[in-house]
Amino acid sequence: MHQVIHLEGISLQRKNIIGLVELTLVARRPRLRIVKISCKQCKIYKVTINKTETEFSYYDPAIEITETEHPNNQYSLDQFAVHHRNAVLECDPDAGGGEIVIRIPPELSHIIDEGRRFTVEMEYSLEHPQSGMHFFVPDDPSGQERAHMFTTRHENSSRLWFPCIDSYSEVCTWDLEFKVEENLVAISCGDLVETVQDTGRMKTYHYFVSTPTAAPNIGLAVGPFEIYVDPNMHEVVHFCLPGLMNLLRWTSRFTHEIFEYYEDLLATRFPYSSFKTVYVHEASEEMTSYSSMCILDTNLLHTSAIIDQTYITRRFTALSLAEQFYSCYISMQHTSDAWLSKGISNYLCGLYLKKFFGNNEYRHWIHSELQEVIKFEQQYGGVILDPSLLDKSSTSGTTGIGNLCSNSNNSLQQAPRPSHVSAEGGDGDFYFSLVNPQTISPLYLKIMAKKAHLTIRMLEHRIGSQLLLQVLNKQLSLASIYISQTNESGNRIVSAQPINPNPPGTQSGQTAPGANPTSPMLISTASFTRAIFTVTGKDMTVFMDQWVRQGGHVRFHMSFIFNRKRNTVELELKQECLQQLGVRKYVGPLTVALQELDGTFKHVLQIEGTQAKADIVCHSKSRRQKKKKIPLCTGEEVDMDLSSMDADSPVLWIRLDPEMTLIRAVDTRQPDFQWQYQLRHERDVTAQVEAIGALEAYPNQQSRMALTDLIENEQAFYKVRCEACSCLTKIANLMVSSWTGPPAMLGIFRKLFGSFSCPQIVKQNDFSNLQHYFLLKTIPVAMASLRNVHGICPSEVHKFLIDLFKYNDNSRNRFSDNYYRAALVASLGNTVTPVVSLLQPGSDITAESLSSDTRIIMEEISRCLNLEKMLQCYKFTVTVECLKALRKLQKFGHLPNHVELFKDYACYGQFHDVRLSALDAIVDYTKTDGKLEDVEYLLDIIENDPNPRMRHDLSRLIVHCLSEKSADRRSKTKLPFHNKAIALRIWKKMNYDLAIDARLRCDLVDLYYTLFGTRKPVCLLDESQQHLADEITSRRKSPLTVREDVDFKPEVVEEVGEAELPNIVSAGVLSSKHESMASDNSAELPDALDSSLPTSFEPEMFRTEKEIEIESSEREVKAKFRSDTKSVESKDGEVEAGESSSHKKHSHHSHHHSKAKKKKEKKKKHKHKHKHKHSHEHKKKVKEETLSSASSGSNSPAQT
User: Fold this and answer.
1) C-alpha to C-alpha distances, 715 to 632, 744, 756, 967, nearest whole angstrom
2) Fewer CB within 10 Å: C terminus or N terminus of the chain?
3) Bias regions of kind Basic and acidic residues — which residues (predicted)?
4) How many CB atoms lie within 10 A of CB 1043?
5) Would the pTM count as exceeding 0.90?
6) What are the Cα distances from residue 181, in Å, to 201, 219, 378, 761, 1008?
7) What would the pLDDT profile of 826-846 be if each residue is shown by its tens digit?
C-alpha cells in the first residue's frame, strides 16, 4: 500500500485545511465490494476509485455512546463501558472497521477479483478541528508570538486530520505535499525532495517517506519557524519559533551524543536518513514522536543558566530518539502490543540516562517508577500489559479494508474469559475497557508505560543485557533487510502473502488479531517471545503469561531471627493480602542479600507458596571484641561502630530483591539499628531510600544522628540527602518534647551555606556544586514543616527563612536562582498552620487582625508576586509557588476565602504552569467551600478552553484532588460536585460531545467515576430511592461506626439511678484489667499533679445533672414502651413476670448490641458507660450475662 497526502488550503487565521488523499490498495480476497476508511471530523466532498466516482457513507457509532431517550439509560459506567467498547471496536481499523464506507462500482469488480492494484482518491476539508490538529493563533498578530499549526496525537488518531487506515500494523510508503504561504515552513516526515515556488506568493514542500511507516506516525507542522542545522550532525535539523534561537542552540547541543550512543548500543544505524525536531506552543504533550520527526513543547527549551530543566529536557529528547527505533520504525502489530514499543523505548532511554547521569540517578528513577506502579495498582487494580485475552468480541464476517491486507482481523477467535475479567462493562478491576487505547484512562496508559519498562528490565535480568540487546538488534536488522529488498524490487507497496491470523494450535491472543507475524516491520508479544528463544534458547512463555498477560504486583512480608547455636538466619516470607486489589501470588526464585561482618552474601530462595521459611547459614560469626573493617557489596571496606548491634548476631542488615527484578512491594521487619546501619553504610541508593522510609517509625536519637550524618555526607547521592531532610523533619516533630539543641538542619545549613565570619548570614549564591544547590533548595522547605509543642512553626525558623529572602544575592552566580526563590516561597507556605482566631464570629479579616508572623509572610509573598510581574523568571516558578502559598493562607483562616484572584491568573493567555496552579487553588476551594457556580466555572474551562492540554490537565487535577484523602469529613454526596445538573452535564459531554477527542472523553469518564462510582449517581435517583440511599449512607457514615458495613446502634440506658462519678485512677497504676483505657504512649503522671483531677476524658463527664435526668427520663419511657410491646408479642414466655426490671433491661440492652459494638463496649468497660449505683453482686451477674450472650450468639435474653 502507498498513500499520497496533498494539502493546499492551509489557512492559519481561518484554522482550516483543504486536501486530497490517494490510497493505493490491493485486495487480498476476491469478491470484495466494500472498503472502509478511517476518518473523523473531516468533510468529504468526493470519492473516486480509479478515477470513477463512487458512493460512500459516513457512520461513527462513537458520536452517541448511549442513547439519550433510551428507557434503559441508567447513567452508570457499567452500562457506558459496554457501549463505549462496542462503539470503538466497530470502527477499529485493526478489526477491519472504519467510519467511511465506500462501495466499489460493479464495473471495477473485475480488478478486485483479479487481485490488481486500485486507487482510492478522496477530496476533503477540515475546519476548526477539535483534536488531532491544533492551530495556535495569538490575539495580537504584531506581538512576539506567531501563528502556527501542528498535529497532535493520542494513540492512533491520524484519522482526525486526513483519511487513512489508522492502524499501527498497516505500514506503507508516503508522498507528502503541502502548499503554504512563502513566509511559512512546512515540516513533515521523510526526506525533503523539493521546494517549489508557486505563483501567488505560495510555496509547495514535497516530502517522501521511503521507509514504510504507519499512518499514526505521520505528523505535520506549519509556521514561521527558524531553522538550525546541527553542527555535529548535518542530518539533524531543529526548528523553533522566532526569538527562541538562542535557547534552541543550547538545548540541542547534546543531541548528536544520543544518536551515537543508540547506534553503538544497538549496533545499527539510525533507521531514517534525516531527523527533525520542532518546538511549538501549546503542545498537547511535552513530546510526540513521528517517523523521522518529533514535535516538542517550547517549555522544554532553556538557557545555560537553568539547572533543573536540563534533566527533564534531556530525558524527553532521549526518549524521542529511542521511539524512532521502537515505535516508528518497528511498529506494534496490534494495540495490545503497545507495551513492547513503550517498554523498549523507555528501556533504551534509561540506559542512556544511566550512562550520562550515573547509576544512582538511574536506580533512583527505577525505584520511583516501581513505587508509582505499586501505588496505582493498590488503588485501582492490576495493570495488564497485553490485554489481548480480554478481547471477547468476534469480528468474523466483517468486510472492509481489513480484508485487503493480512494485517486485519477477520476471523478473530473468541478467547476464553479469564477469571480476573469483570462481569460488568469494564475489564479486569477497572470501569473501562482495556481492549482499545481509545477507551483506556490516560492515567492507566501512563502507568502502563512505566510498568512495561519495568517488565523489560525483568527480562534483562533473566536473559542478560547483552542477549537482550542482540534480540533488539536482530529485529532492527531484519527490518532493514526487508526494506532493502522491497526498494530493489521497485515495489513501493509494502505487502506480504496472506496468512491465517490464528493458525491451528495457536491460542487466540498469541498473535495479534489479523496481523502479519512474518513482517519484520511489526513486533508483537508472540514474535518477541520467539525472537528471545531464537537468540538465547530460553523459553519465556511462562514469564509472558505471568507478567504481561496478567496484572498485579507481588507483596512480601519478611521477618527473621538469628539462631545463635546454629549460626543461621531463620527467614520467614509471607505473601499476605492476596485478595487485596492489585496483589497477586508469586512462584519462582527470589534473591535475599545478607550484609554480614565478613561481607555481602546473596542467596536465591525458591518461593512455592504463600508462606516460605528458609534457614540461611551465615558466613561470619559474631565478633564481640575484635575490630575489623567491614567489606561492602561494592568491595569497599569501612569502619563501623558495632556497639548498637546484637553481640551474638553477625547480621548487619538484610534486603529482599535488591536488584528490583520483580514488580514487588516489600515489608521488611528488622530492628531500628539495622535500618540505621543500612542507611549509613549501604551504597545502593534504593537501600538508602528504603531505610529512610523505615526510620520514620523510629523517632529516637540514633535515627536523628543517622539522618544527620547522611545529610552531611558529601559522598551520598543528592536525592537521597534531600529525602533524608524530609524524614528528619518528621522525626523532629515526633521528638518535639525531647528534642535538644537548635531546630533540625539549622546547623547543617549554616555549616554548608553560612558566611565564614557570620554563619547566620547566607553566602552569595554559587550553584557550581549541584549537590549543594539541591540541598540549598530542600533544607528550607523541610525546616518550614517543623512544629513545636503547640503545633506551630518555631519563631527561630520563621526568622531564619525571612533572613534567606533578605540576604539572597545572585549577582555573581552564573546560574539562575528562580527555582531557589520558588523553594523559599514554598517554605513560607509550609510554615502556615491553622489560625487560632481572636475575632468575633462574622467579623472580617483585616491587615490589623493578622498575627505578626502571618503579616510578614503576606508582605514577602506580595513582594515576590509583584516583582514577578515586572521581572519574569523562567517558567514563572515564583508566581506558581506564591499562588500555592496564598491558598494555604486561605485554607487555614489567615485570609478571606475568595477565589477572584485565582480566576484572574487562570484566564487563557497566562503561562500554562501559572494557570494550572491557580486552577489547583480553585479546585481545592470548590471541594471545601465552593458552590455550584464554581463547579460550572471549572467545567466551562474543560469544555471550551482553546488549549487542549489545559483541558486535559484540569480534568486530571480535579480527579486527583477528589481522590486524595483530606481532613474534610463531609460525605461525597455533600460536595458541590455531587449535583444533578453536574452529573447530567458530565454524562452528556462524555456521551455525545467528545467523539473527536478520545483523551478528554476518557478524562471525563475518570471524573464521573471519581464522583459517582460505577452505578447510577444518588443525585439522579428517584425521591424514594434517594431517601433510602440517604438513610443507608447516614447509618454507614456515623462517626462512631468503625466499618462502613457495620450499622451502628446507639446504646440505650434504661434505668436511671444516682449518678456515679467516674473512678479516678492514676495512669501509672492501671491494672491489666484497665489497660485498654490508657494510651500506648501514656506515662505516669507527676506526683505534683492534683490527684483529684481525671487522668483522661470520660464519656459524659462534662454533662450537667439536669441533662442526664431529662435524657434518662426519655429513655425510660421508650424502654417501657418497648418492653410492653415485646411482652405482648412473646409466645414462649421467655421473660417472667417476677424477673427484676434491672436484669430485664440489661438483657434487652445486650440483646440489641451488634458484635462490633460488644467489642467496643468491652474495651471501654461497661461500668464506665452508666452513671448508676449497682451492687457488686449485680454487676457480676450482668457481666456473666453479657459474656454468655456473646459466646453463644443466642438471640434470646440470658436467663439467671
Assistant:
1) 15, 21, 23, 40
2) C
3) 1100-1134
4) 9
5) no
6) 6, 19, 54, 59, 45
7) 999 999 988 765 444 556 666
